[in-house]
Amino acid sequence: HIFRQYLMAWDQAEATADYAVRTLGLRRFAILYPNDPYGESFMQPFWYALVERGGEVVSAVGYDIDQTDFGEEIDHLVGPFYEGFRGERFEKRGLADFRLFPGFDAIYIPDEYARVGLIASQLAYHEIRGVRLLGNNGWNDEQIFQAAGDQLEGGIFVDGFFASDSAPAVQSFVERFTAAHGFAPGAAEAEAYDAVRMLIWALGPGGGPGREAVRGAVASIAGFPGVAGTVAFDGAGDGHRGLRFLQIRRREIVEAGTATGADEGEVPPADQGGIPPDDGFVQPAPDDGLGAPR
Question: Which domains does the chain show, CATH number per domain?
């Protein structure tokens, strides 16, 4: 039996589209994505989710994962009219800082932080300003600012784990993990920790020894309060996590809000109808020093 409890691309893309349209009030979008299965796994559901919510994709351009110059892709993204009009204004009027806003409100860039930083800096070079930048959990690394500088200001992305979350369970995990290993945990460590806690619960009070008992217990999880987001499994064994919206402000990653996840497998936070911390799920031990459950 296989259960997957990492962040699903579909959940991230759908939550981002929902937030962009319903919370931020954005309507017209461009998508700049890695032209590989990873990038397409975000691009397609983001597009579908936008259309379902009344949004519009005006441009979508893929790029090779090994390139570092995105000028051609950016030109295609904004279209030849934009580039030609901008060049004409520069030439005829001699304007040193002329900016023409493209025909979209936001650009969705579902990629890892290093390339996102390069892309953001090149968007600024091509005078693409005044649009919101949106992303996925690949953005969640402070190193994203090394290439991007201030060009990502106001950018929004999602993740399940946020090490600076003020929730006591998250801070307890972060402090004990850091003390034991000498570095702060990331999403992978948090998800692994949650997986072990779920298995311990399934082997004990949730199910008991034996394959079917454990399988049934894990399959029944519908509000596990993980440190990387509340988890629920669907009938296919895919885990859907409650997501956090994170925002870039003054070269810092801060919390912008919380999403309840995809329409199917929706997972409310523990304090909004999910399983409370004292319901029998294994909780972090306060003094084991290993970041491990009891």
Answer: 9-158 (3.40.50.2300), 168-242+261-272 (3.40.50.2300)
